[in-house]
Amino acid sequence: MERNPVTELREKIDMDRLPSHIAIIMDGNGRWAKKRLLPRTAGHREGMKRVIDIVQVASELNIKYLSLYAFSTENWKRPKEEIDGLMKLLVEYIRIELDRIHRNNIKIQTMGDLSKIPEFARKEIKRAIDTTQNNTKMVLNIGLNYGGRDEIIRGIKSLLEDIRMGKINIEEVDEGSFKNYLYTKDIPDPDLLIRPSGELRISNFMLYQIAYTEFWFSDILWPDFKEEHLYMAIIDYQRRNRRFGGI
Ligand code: FPP
């Protein structure tokens, strides 16, 4: 009988050593569209379909946390039509997928300042968060108006405020307590960060949390990213020897 190469790849994954938290910088939508002479929003739409696929695959694999970079604090510099298109896609994603996400016991949460997200999208995001708040199989953590530096500065401001109010002493400030001032206070640091599209940079994503994260870069554009690429990243991750500064 002929073997399916994707199944073969999946079988190479050691299910006892899965990364608990995978973070993905979903890049390359614009280039994918340009190659096909399509508007950039067509690339984002195809990228949304990959979000649907990868959330499903990650949850089937038993990944506990999946963080996706959907909109950065710098993305406001893009043309208005593109920003509007991205916000509409996010709403469409929630409308199409929320039922299934909820049925699959996935909890949606976000990181980033939602106050700047247009009202029509914020309402849907809130509905998704509220509906799924008690789910326990996997956390889908979406970066929306998120920037790593912005997160750290907000954390510091809020910590200083708590010090001023006497809620915490300077002596108590350490890595354990500072974590509570980040958007990711309830989730562990990423074990594996995936960046497709050939760019070899972090672009302000989870700067504080990636101290010991393993990186996996690839030339594949996000709209072409398939389940086998996720498997390849995990297999590669499992070959590495994580020492966390030890020997
Ligand atoms: C980067 O590609 C991608 C984005 C800025 C947006 C990512 C959004 C989605 C995949 C769709 C909606 C998201 C969810 C969570 C449903 P780029 O435009 O910078 O690509 P380029 O570098 O090729 O121009």
From TrEMBL:
UniProt cofactor note: Binds 2 magnesium ions per subunit.
EC number: 2.5.1.-
Residues binding substrate: 28-32, 40, 44, 72-74, 76, 78, 195, 201-203
Active site: 27, 75 (proton acceptor)
Superkingdom per UniProt: Bacteria
Gene Ontology biological process terms from the UniProt entry: polyprenol biosynthetic process
One Gene Ontology molecular-function label: magnesium ion binding
Matches recorded under InterPro entries: UPP_synth-like, UPP_synth-like_CS, UPP_synth-like_sf
PROSITE patterns: UPP_SYNTHASE
UniProt key word Magnesium: yes
Residue sites binding Mg(2+) per the record: 27, 214
GO cellular component: cytosol
Keywords (A to Z) from UniProt: Magnesium, Metal-binding, Transferase
Essential cofactor(s): Mg(2+)
Family: Belongs to the UPP synthase family.
Subunit structure: Homodimer.
Record function comment: Catalyzes the condensation of isopentenyl diphosphate (IPP) with allylic pyrophosphates generating different type of terpenoids.
UniProt cross-references to NCBIfam families, sorted A to Z: PRK14830.1, uppS
Record-given protein name: Isoprenyl transferase
Lineage, broadest ranks: Bacteria, Bacillati, Bacillota, Tissierellia, Tissierellales
